[in-house]
């Protein structure tokens, strides 16, 4: 295996990386005084919001704990559920008002056979996930991505290792339709492995994955922070790739509700979004992140070691428990709740904006893997995505909060954005789909329907 040679900086470690974080991270100006924003009389002030225990739930938890909901006249009860299907089921049944969900869930609901009118109000965060595999792979010579010259060197090694095994490879995701699942499939196919046939994907709650790994039930998993860091700390496995290196700036979780609920409660919807946006800004401030980690670590939320949570908020990331400093990296954009410095940002870009191009990309992948009963790209996709990921509501709230908006909701992704070097032009989704040699029922040629 080829190893990359790194310059060794004296004193480089997690403590010193934290110092670097202070000088390499910034967010939009944040006013800690109450905004003079009035969305009108609230149609409903007592809300139930659902979430699953992971670091991506921070905006909802912080909005509750730091009084952002209260500032907008809302009294909120947070309801923790074990699975995303549980959150979705309660939203569809109007048993809760809104909740945290993986990005693709509203698309799956509306374009699926039941045509459930679930919508996304805003994106809660970008990046924030990683793929972890077991120590057996380490013993076989596989190393974290940072140990290789490039992706080609890594994928040759991992492909050979997994194909030469006597038993099939099994990786876990928290849902077959989570962003983690789609990025894992993208990563596997870039390696040259066919998901489902060469690598089986199984579902477990992220909080249980370390135990499944330790029991030998799975060979690895893809999950949001901080569950990968727990596995590294307990020396049960190591991180191969962080998700931001599979797709720079990918959407992860969203704030979802029913279309009918948002129409019935327009003022409440906007107040809810404003409170969550301000909480996202709060989470991204470096001087708040120790406090944010301590809140998230409480037993009624994530019930985890605060240091694990704080490291992923700041970006002091451990790929392995090995003492080699190469495996301790500062990744300032590992998690973005609102805005961090990143080479893939435009001047007014921020994480909460519902880019239409993100929805287009997700739709291409759902078609690629036949997760919908749609086998070509819909000619009316723009109209469909307008209903599922409405932009207008968010723009109204952002304007009220004096948050600048990106210049274009159809963001092109350059070849450096994705791990396989493919660029993405959202205005030409069919050509993008037909680039992929590995896909469900290949080698079908995709068109418009």
Primary descriptors:
single chain, 449 residues, alpha/beta, D-Maltodextrin-Binding Protein, domain 2, five-stranded mixed sheet, 18 helices, 14 strands, 36% helix, globular, disordered N terminus, ion transport, NrtC-like protein, cell membrane, transport, cell inner membrane
Structure report:
The protein is of the alpha/beta class. It folds into two domains: 11-125 and 252-354 and 389-411, Periplasmic binding protein-like II (D-Maltodextrin-Binding Protein, domain 2); 129-249, 3-Layer(aba) Sandwich (D-Maltodextrin-Binding Protein, domain 2), CATH 3.40.190.10. The chain is 36% helix and 15% strand. The protein has helices at residues 14-24, 58-65, 68-71, 84-92, 105-111, 135-139, 151-163, 179-191, 209-214, 227-233, 259-264, 266-284, 289-296, 306-314, 356-368, 381-388, 392-400, 429-433; strands at 46-52, 75-81, 98-102, 118-123, 126-127, 129-134, 169-173, 199-203, 220-224, 237-242, 253-258, 316-318, 328-330, 335-336. Strands 2-1-3-11-4 form a five-stranded mixed β-sheet, sandwiched between helices. Strands 8-7-9-6-10 form a five-stranded mixed β-sheet, with helices on both faces. The chain has a two-stranded antiparallel ribbon with strand order 5-14. α12 (266-284) packs across α17 (392-400). It is globular and about 65 Å long.
Present the secondary structure layout.
Elements: H1 14-24, E1 46-52, H2 58-65, H3 68-71, E2 75-81, H4 84-92, E3 98-102, H5 105-111, E4 118-123, E5 126-127, E6 129-134, H6 135-139, H7 151-163, E7 169-173, H8 179-191, E8 199-203, H9 209-214, E9 220-224, H10 227-233, E10 237-242, E11 253-258, H11 259-264, H12 266-284, H13 289-296, H14 306-314, E12 316-318, E13 328-330, E14 335-336, H15 356-368, H16 381-388, H17 392-400, H18 429-433
Parallel strand pairs: 1-2, 1-3, 7-8, 7-9
Antiparallel strand pairs: 3-11, 4-11, 5-14, 6-9, 6-10, 12-13
Helix pairs in contact: 2-12, 12-17, 13-14
Organism: Crocosphaera chwakensis CCY0110
Protein name: NrtC-like protein
Subcellular location: Cell inner membrane
